[in-house]
Structures are given as structure tokens and as C-alpha cells.
Design goal:
Layout: H1 8-37, E1 39-44, E2 49-54, E3 59-64, H2 73-102, H3 110-119
Antiparallel strand pairs: 1-2, 2-3
Helix pairs in contact: 1-2
């Protein structure tokens, strides 16, 4: 206990912060579990190419309309890349919304949340991504 002339008030305040941080960690774990099973779908070409993935970036399904398989290979590659990018943006938005709900509306940039979840041992919320291949 810290005695700064306030006695029990400091102790109670510290205890309340500790309890709140424990509750937040539990909420983050539940949020992580929820995100692992949430699916989002990115699209391109007016829905002709669709990528469905979890909010942990695990690809669940890739759908390509049959008529595109007869078209230009480069165009199909571009549509697939665009669908993946759309899905990733939707994952980031979904994660941000979910975390905002867990933090009482307090918004943090995704990279700062990733740093916090790593620092406070909430594994798996954000995959480790290497900048080099």
C-alpha cells in the first residue's frame, strides 16, 4: 500500500484499477475468441470474385465465377488481389469495432492495440507479419 496522506483511498483506487484491468483482459480474451470465428467477405469485379476469411486472417474460402476462368489471366489475378485487399480492410474494420466495444468506445489505432495485446499477453489477436518475405 502506498501512503501519500490519503491512506485507504490510494489502496482502494489501486485495487479498483487492478480489478478493472483483470476484467478488461477477460473481455479481450472473449473478444479474441469471438473474432477467431467471425467471417468477413471481400469482393471484387462486382462480386465475381469473393474471399472469405476469419478476423484472424485465416482464409476460409475463395470463390471465382466460372466465366472468369476463361478470361485474361492477369485480369483474374488483379481481381483476386483486389478481393483479398477488400477482405483485409473489412477484417481491420471489424476488429476495430469489436475492440472499441471492449474498451468502452475508446479508440486505439490497430498497431497500438497490437502492441498492447502482445505486451499484455493476449496472444493470437493479431498475426505476426514479417515486413520482408
Amino acid at each position: 500500500m502506498i501512503n501519500m496522506g490519503m491512506g485507504e483511498e490510494v489502496y482502494e483506487g489501486s485495487r479498483a484499477v487492478y480489478e478493472a484491468s483483470g476484467q478488461m483482459q477477460e473481455n479481450m480474451q472473449k473478444g479474441q475468441d469471438d473474432l477467431a470465428s467471425m467471417l468477413v467477405t471481400g469482393e471484387s469485379g462486382g462480386g465475381k470474385v469473393k474471399v472469405t476469411m476469419t478476423c484472424k486472417h485465416d482464409v476460409h474460402r475463395l470463390e471465382i465465377e466460372d466465366n472468369l476462368l476463361k478470361d485474361d489471366k492477369e485480369m483474374l489475378e488483379d481481381l483476386i488481389a483486389a478481393a483479398f485487399n477488400d477482405a483485409i480492410r473489412k477484417v481491420e474494420q471489424t476488429v476495430q469495432e469489436k475492440l472499441s466495444g471492449l474498451t468502452g468506445g475508446f479508440s486505439l489505432p490497430l498497431d497500438e492495440v497490437a502492441d498492447l495485446t502482445t505486451e499484455y499477453h493476449v496472444p493470437g489477436l493479431f498475426p505476426v507479419v514479417s515486413a520482408t518475405h
